[in-house]
Design goal:
178 residues, alpha+beta, Thiol Ester Dehydrase, Chain A, binds coenzyme A
Length: 178
């Protein structure tokens, strides 16, 4: 019987060819976890660090799948905590590439919290992270280009490209990271 979760008959994975562009959808990831007492802080909310770890790990999956290499987190550009999360809620981390440079990859992240008994969902965190793909000698290595599948994706990539350029320009002007 066919698995409802994955295609058992899919073609074998081909060796990575970094000249072949990939779309955003090819590597997008969704990760969920039920928040438990051990995830909480002194106020009874879920500890921010628990969510940060989930975000970093889930976003790294996207970067690894796109680059076919191990990656390191080079930067967390933004981590906006919009609303608290409570024990007993299901945290879901949605990650997709925003932009790909020569060896770096920017991943956009949205996190929701769901009350599983009622299905009520709210957005709790928004973030974007930069990873760098590494070869076996731990040197940055080139990654495949990112191919927009439609106009929306084209705009997402272009917005990220412009944002990265502006950040770089401001840092050059200031002579330090912002
Ligand atoms: C990230 C790291 C590999 C960059 O090394 P580096 O010698 O500066 O590499 P390069 O100058 O060749 O830059 C490689 C790419 O990373 C990008 N980059 C490097 N530092 C960055 C930063 N702080 N923010 C955003 N992008 C960064 C560069 O713009 C470049 O992108 P491109 O190839 O797409 O143009 C290095 O600083 C490192 O190993 N940091 C520690 C990472 C780590 O331990 N993370 C936590 C655990 S995973």
């Amino acid at each position: 019987m066919q698995s409802p979760f994955w295609n058992q008959n899919r073609a074998p994975v081909q060796p990575a060819d970094i000249t072949i562009p990939k779309t955003i959808a090819e590597t997008a990831s969704v990760t969920s976890r039920l928040m438990e007492v051990l995830d909480s802080n002194n106020h009874g909310n879920v500890h921010g660090g628990v969510i940060m770890r989930m975000v970093d790990e889930s976003a790294a999956i996207v970067a690894i799948k796109h680059s076919h290499h191990g990656v390191v987190t080079a930067r967390i550009d933004r981590m906006d905590f919009i609303a608290p999360v409570f024990v007993g809620e299901v945290v879901t981390v949605y990650c997709a590439l925003n932009y790909v440079g020569r060896t770096s990859l920017e991943v956009g992240v949205e996190v929701t919290a769901e009350k599983p008994r009622t299905g009520e969902v709210r957005k709790v965190v928004s973030s974007q992270l930069v990873f760098v793909a590494m070869d076996d000698q731990r040197h940055p290595i080139n990654v495949p280009p990112l191919l927009p599948a439609n106009d929306d994706e084209g705009q997402r990539i272009e917005r990220a490209r412009v944002r990265r350029k502006r950040i770089k320009r401001i840092e050059e002007e200031l002579g330090e990271p912002i």
